[in-house]
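hey all, quick one before standup. I had two proteins in the batch that finished overnight and I want to keep them in one place so we stop losing track of which output belongs to which input. First protein below, input sequence then structure tokens straight from the run.
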Amino acid sequence: MDIKFYKRTVRGGSWVNDNHTDGRKVPALVMTATITPPADAVERADPAVRLGDYKSALVYYLQLPNSVIDRIVFIENSDSDLSSIVEMTETIEHDKDVEFISFQGNDHSPELGKAYGEFRLLDFGLDNSSLLGEDDIFWKTTGRVRVLNLDVLINSAPTDYDLLCDLRTILFSGSFRFSNNPWMDLRVYSCSLRGYRELFYGRYNKSKSRFDSRYLYHVVKASPQHLKIIPRFSRQPQLDGFSGRRNAHYNQGAQRLRHIVRDSVRRVLPQLWI
């Protein structure tokens, strides 16, 4: 069945798909978005507030150097009106091509898991994007969140991989208790288009269990040997913005303290995946 969708590309002032000095191709950024979430699915539910989050994050990424990211694909799955964020992108000065895609892909039960909707979104967006080629690398971020050290993560990444992500084997909970609970951090990771298609494409619709970060941890661990998987970032991603589920700020209070602990452990005890 054909799915109706909105698509619009805003051209930057001087977009050039160039290479890093070490020969790597400059990656694209994929921002995932749900402006109007299902009722009672998240604490941060107001569409106007969420749209403001997306605008703020997009402005931040547009200001990054063209040598860090040179294209942005913004994929939205609640078929919400994107006119104001498109107009904003057209009026501010930047050097990137930005592609907006919106469709209705959030009509499933929340019981299927948050990752179900996100990977359905990614499948559809990557299939319909005109900015991504088969040999591209992209970085995926939760669209409302700013990754303040994205440039560091990109510049410290290896030159060749199919998936670069953070797998965690210990859940560091809100009460600061540690428990054995393997999961994949879905807020930020990077894939080759080949890696995404082999690891994740279509899988949301085939899982017989809840499709979530724990399930995806085991998908990655069981990945084919010919894929180049790097299961840990060398640096701790620094997130700024609000969690949708709990409406807690990532860079304040207990969330900030967790970031500091994780950053320290990553440097001192890199074998401890928290």
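OK second protein, same deal, sequence then tokens:
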Amino acid sequence: MKRLDHILSFDCYYIDGYGIFLFIIGLFHHWVLILCLLYFFVVRKKIKLFFVLFFISLLSILFFYSSNLNTPSLIQGEVKVVGVNQGEYSDTVTIKYKQMKFNMKSQIGRYSYGDIIYIHADVKNYRNQTIPFGFNQKEYYLSKGVKGYLDVKESTLIQSSFSIYQIREKLFDDINHLNSSVYIKSLIFGEKSFSNDQSEILKDLGIMYLLTISGMHVYMLFILVDKALFYLSASQKSRHIIKIIMYLILLYLNLFSIGVLRLFIMYILQIPNQKYQLDFSKLDLSLFTFLIMLITNIHLIYHQGFLVTYLIMNFLYLMEFRYKTYDGYLKKLVITSIIFLVVLPFNKTVSLLMILCLPFLIGFVTGPLFLGSIATILIPELDQLMTIFIKIFENTVSFLSHKNISIHLPALSIFQLFIYFMIIILIFRSNKVIELISRTLILALFFIAIILYRATNNEIIFLDVGQGDSTIIKSSGCVIVIDAFQHVNTYLKNQGIYEIDYLILTHSDSDHTRDASAIINTMKVNQIVLSAYDQKYEHYKGEKLFVKSGDEIKCNHITLHILGPIRSYTSPNDNSIVIQTKIDNLTFLFTGDIERDAEHDLANRYQNHLKSDVLKIAHHGSSSSTSLEFLDYVRPSISIISLGYENKFKFPDQKVLERLYKYQSIIYRTDIQGSIVYSISKKKEKWGLVLPF
């Protein structure tokens, strides 16, 4: 009987929840399952076995059923439009076919919610993360329930049927002309419409989370509503009805975003908990909300923001005893500090100024900006006043971003994340000042150790940047970046790299230089290396070095021999910088986008000196490059081709591949094999891949 009482007791369900949370992480990182079992063993006298087994079994069934659904390779038939996201040049349309969702590109305004269309399309899979600690496209779309995207051969509108979301679409279109539309879309409709520069500043300052998935502004709104209804002497029943209606409206406008949905479910659970005095704690209700959301939408298991929000709420509830006796600014400061520390490994930016100012910014976002957004939708004439609020907010953010001294922390592996949160728990449990200082020092040493480890982890990585080029050399305390199309800035920050010895831009084409300005503006770049014969580079701040054939660049023990350009060419591609260097007893040859003319000159001048072990194939595998004359001197054992997956140019050209096969060269391609890593520090298995599928 005692065993039965333990199983059916109504307290401390959150203890079971932490084990279930570990199990969920273990579905993706299997070693965490050992940690999960260890946790359950330690708390075995406190857990409710039936509760744990039921939800672990249910979540497992839903997860594996969803993961193993047979995705068709071809769709030919009627589908329904269940989502439309307007872009700058095209719409991303989400269609539903046999309980599965897929994305496709369409002309702006061609399709609307609820439309029935005939479609003939090939189904394609989104790619996994192909850059270490980079964006995982596949998991991002799976978190939205989207299984893949369509290569459309034919699509025809069959029927325009009414959808309840067409009203939202109309409201959304009606605010496009407003100056404040970007903020209204973010705060009311849950749409990210900020420019890249705005997003970067807001992310660095830690505000982006507030404006997207936290739901904090909605929470603050309902605190105000609750106070207003209290002063109006509204009955408890009336309060519940009004608040539920408001929640449903916001859920509809936000397309049931996780931030608002979490608050709504939590509120609904609180009603019977208070009415029937069930005595569930906030931690228990948070767990029930978490499980309800997962069971009704198992795809949220892929949503990092959803999992992080659960962590934040648990830390806030567990640490409530630390701040509940405080008032005013101090209380807000402690709460925002807790949120900041939980989000830190995902935001990766430390700023003391930001922590101090965050309570004010939260107040401004949840006050004038959010309430102003609601008022402006109802009364468009208030747009001018709303614009003033936005100016104040943006000027404050801009001031903070310029005065802000930020430390960018390296990205953490899942194992390092567990260590981080263990240290954070110790910090939160500190009862004495000396404990707080010593444990904070341990946290600082933890990050320093990671930075030092990665600094000594010498490697050459050919990043999968799509239809462009980016290579990073880390060796002998030297960091060299050769070309910077995209994702380079983020990769370097995630690796804890903030200083570059040489940023080499082989030529001025945007597929080699797009990320250069962002790198120069956010990092210390000691020298920018440019081609002496390319006159089309944009203006870059900093010390520049123009190079041509015969020059040398030394970086500690690395010597870069500049083989080209030999002269000025008519083709901009032939003016590319050509580099040969020896690292770890291998000779690497980087060729930019050179074509036959430059290759012919290089072959004539250097002949057998061109012999290299690893050849970075020129111009993404175009037939205009990698001539037999050139290959006859280089004779690479390994060839690297950087190109976009299913690119419109149909690179690499089959003729280029056949030429490489002739010399029995091993070919690595970023479109098929993701980022390609040569680990200098390893003694064996030096070549590694970050596979996309």
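Flagging for whoever picks this up: Residues 2-67 form one domain. Residues 1-10 have pLDDT under 50 and may be disordered.
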